[in-house]
Amino acid sequence: MNDGGESLPEPEKGALPLDDVGRLVELLAESGVGEIRVRQGELEITVKARIEGPAGATVEPSAAPVIAQTTAPLAEAVSEPGPAERNGGMHVARSPVVGTFYRAPAPGEEPYVEVGDRVGAGQALCIVEAMKLMNEILADVSGEVVEVLVEDAKGVEYDQPLFRIRPEG
Amino acid sequence: MNDGGESLPEPEKGALPLDDVGRLVELLAESGVGEIRVRQGELEITVKARIEGPAGATVEPSAAPVIAQTTAPLAEAVSEPGPAERNGGMHVARSPVVGTFYRAPAPGEEPYVEVGDRVGAGQALCIVEAMKLMNEILADVSGEVVEVLVEDAKGVEYDQPLFRIRPEG
Amino acid sequence: MIGKVLVANRGEVALRVIRACREIGIRSVAVYSTADADSLHRLLADEAICIGPPQAASSYLNIPAIIAAAELSGADAIHPGYGFLAENARFAEICEACNIKFLGPASSVIAQMGDKASARQVAAAVGVPVTPGSDGPCRSASEVKRIGAEVGYPLVIKASAGGGGKGMRVVRAEEEVEAAYTSASREAGAAFGDGSVYAERYMKELRHVEVQVVADGFGKMAIFPERDCSVQRRYQKLIEESPAPELPETARKGMKEAAAALVDSLGYEGAGTVEFVYVGGEFYFIEMNTRLQVEHPVTEMVTGVDLVAEQFAVASGEGLSVAGNVSSRGHAMEFRINAEDPRRNFLPQTGPIEFYNPPGGPGVRVDSHLYAGFKVAPYYDSLLAKLIVHARTREAVLRRGARALDEFAVAGLETTLPLHLAILEDEDFRRGGVSTTFLAGRELKSDGRGLPRLAATGLPSA
Amino acid sequence: MIGKVLVANRGEVALRVIRACREIGIRSVAVYSTADADSLHRLLADEAICIGPPQAASSYLNIPAIIAAAELSGADAIHPGYGFLAENARFAEICEACNIKFLGPASSVIAQMGDKASARQVAAAVGVPVTPGSDGPCRSASEVKRIGAEVGYPLVIKASAGGGGKGMRVVRAEEEVEAAYTSASREAGAAFGDGSVYAERYMKELRHVEVQVVADGFGKMAIFPERDCSVQRRYQKLIEESPAPELPETARKGMKEAAAALVDSLGYEGAGTVEFVYVGGEFYFIEMNTRLQVEHPVTEMVTGVDLVAEQFAVASGEGLSVAGNVSSRGHAMEFRINAEDPRRNFLPQTGPIEFYNPPGGPGVRVDSHLYAGFKVAPYYDSLLAKLIVHARTREAVLRRGARALDEFAVAGLETTLPLHLAILEDEDFRRGGVSTTFLAGRELKSDGRGLPRLAATGLPSA
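YS: structure for the whole thing
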């Protein structure tokens, strides 16, 4: 196809890029997402997860979750644990522990970060306190804080999203 | 398609790239994903997993059916009750009652019909006895008796196939 | 003595009998209609025979087909369950004639108790209190008027062969008798092929209390703690419990003695239930059911006795394993889970069960033929499952019942599960001793929603 | 007194506790790992908090996370279930320090009974027979030799902190002592962080019999009929029953009295189990479990007592609802259904449950967290379900057990269901009173197939 094309590992014409398909299949399985579609020029690859289940039902939130706002995002959490992740171009910083979320190092002090702030990787975002231990949660990307997802002094579950950060660059 | 293309094992026009399909099928099966679709130029291959029910299971015959030979055909029976039906161009005459199957009007006498006989609609094929009542089973098509499906003096269930008849005309 | 039994029924009661057979070591033969080819009673029995098309008249009520199936399979006994042919004296008689042991009393006893006017006479004859009214059938309107003069109005005219409210008329005053007599008799004749009726004093706000017995036909008998079955909708029981709450000890004892006297007078063999109404501090015999009852597990839970096993013990000549007044431990309650939508006037529900997860844990028993994928057909009655809970006190039973109902997951159709949850929150019901009019026009404070968290939308898919 | 309890466990036991809470009227808080987001204990609790990733060390054994969850939810008590933190004295101590009521005895009692050498000493001190052997830990090989000279060989060296066969060595003669002592101590040190060991006479062909107690901490105590848990595989119980079959009345009585004496001496609060071996007509104390046992439903079935409710009654200060020797009715037996393939050396099984239909009917209880679609994860123990059956005699229990196992449908992975069916056909087991070596190298005459007719291929799909 496109003559000028250089950089890319031009998929040889006609030969199916089975290695790529294999990698997408792996990625699908690991990530737990439902579908991956890649189109490049004339090439398009779609990989979908198998639909399973007797009821085909969705996760029903528990009747009265202690921390109601976390119930919905849990599906994500389960699929991709980790302190931060890509999410529509955003990083989501998550809580690595159960505890109480504090935006400031101590009562009366300034929050570590505000929406609009730029943070560098390794910079403290907040504290999650559990059994009197103050766990500083550090940013693992550099970028702009777009949203604070939890109110100050509220409880957070393991893996609960805390901040949305638009990564730099 | 595109003229200039050389190197590649140009899929001959019209010839289906069955090897590629086979590999995608393998990949799908191994990976457990639900669907793989690859499009390249004019070529598009889609492979989908089978969608299954909770058990995806088949009817399991009861452990020791009294009338073992009838268990399999029951699935048919359920779907199309009736004294006779089309079945691969054949009519199947079924028992309208539970009872004992007799090929002849009385012990020692000739059977009503033999394989190869022509029967007319309304002609007696056999007797099914229940509670000393002799139920004459009549053909509801004209044709040739191709097979007798039950042994003389054996029990038959409701709706059990008794004869296969090749209809006339 | 009994080597193989044909179970002339379907659904949960067929399963109940098949379970007992397996435990006792009797081979079981299921019969099924083409609509029930995938049903558990067919799959779990040792043998199975298709006896007809979906309509009950051509299958589960088809006597020649069932007798033929018994003969083909070599069954030496038939267990009729409840409903269908369980109280059909002719069927029992045919079994007797075919030398097939019918699990139940003699056909003559079935016939005698099946005629309610005659049952009243028999009961009265042995000193069992019956509702004030006619001794036997009333052969004319003037006989009814004579009863009215004797016991006072309102009266109720009932069909001798009746049940379920058919051929029944309430008469408020003498001038209504003629018309009521004629129409009740006509309706009874149409429904049961027998237009005879009888009359008794009409009583409201009554409780339905019954006594389970098993007798061996030779004078040995076990009398079980009474059951209260007053929570009904249109003469259909919904909740049963044992012991009956808020019942004086004298009434409890009196009913058991009355039941024993009646059963003894009949030379009764097998399981049976003597039904009473309890009203104004008095109890009156109403009828006797000569078969296993839907609610028998309630008695099994409080006594530890397996009633179906006792039926087989009697039928095989081994004799009862219990006798006299059987002692009871704790309290038990049964909830009937029907395929009916309690929010839409109990509209019957049919179709596939999409998800099914019965409750478990302590004090919980479930009798059901359901499984995920089973299709509820429109041909038969709506009972899907019986949930029976047992605990040490009635109070604990109420809480355990709510817990178990809450866990009970049936998806794909509506059921009476939320109705039961709502009843369990009703103050009158919780107090105990409600009458049979309890549900009529009642506004339940709870809609039973909010609790059943699994049933509504199914569970998370894998 | 207790308004809200955090259930620090998962699987069937979490469900068991949540069921009790709902029945009692206590709010329940489930904790769960990300692997258990779709589990029933999360869905059925009133509240739920995710406490960590799948690995138990980071979730169900993660003390800070669990305490934080209790504080966040405002739980005033923690029920530890069995396993995980149930016998962790430090966890109990932290709960005490945080003013959260731990459902179990004082942390000091957990510690005392957790050290087996010290538990032996305590038991011996109150006159409970212990296996002949050392009084407390053996601090050197020569101490072991002294025991050998006293009680004779073979001896067994065991880890004080031990369990599950770790740090255990059988010594046949004095010359083997040195090497065995060193390796046992080293293994114990590596496994439990505590190398101390003790020695006792080695006994074969023993039975495992245990006595359940619940005490209120103020001298009031209920002692329950003994359980026999001798059917084991590699120290894992597979079948438990009550009462113990073929056990002389003197032994039964002696064990209960011994258990009561020990528990009384501890100022014990809550539920606990005193375990004995029974060998050569004598019984000996081996250890005490300071928690609910997996097999507690066996006791609940024969006594009608809800042991978890009693735990809450004690913890809330309401006091026990029973006391003294609790009477028993009939016989009960529990079968552990594990996700293991008995035909392939008990290979653990994981993956989705494709079809699930537990058995029902009389005398059947199922405690399980399964449902169709649930995924069995590789991170936790293999117990999927407990089937408990109850009937009037052991003979009837054997038949009811076979019936219920036969109906029990679990599709998608292999389970121990067929093993249990095979054991139920074993003559020695049927006779009763087998020893803990019963299963070792045993050829079972039946392979347990042929019967489970639903589980193998699932049921007809809709």
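YS: worth flagging: Residues 1-14, 52-84 of chain A have pLDDT under 50 and may be disordered.
IM: good catch. Also The two ends of chain A are 31 Å apart (CA to CA).
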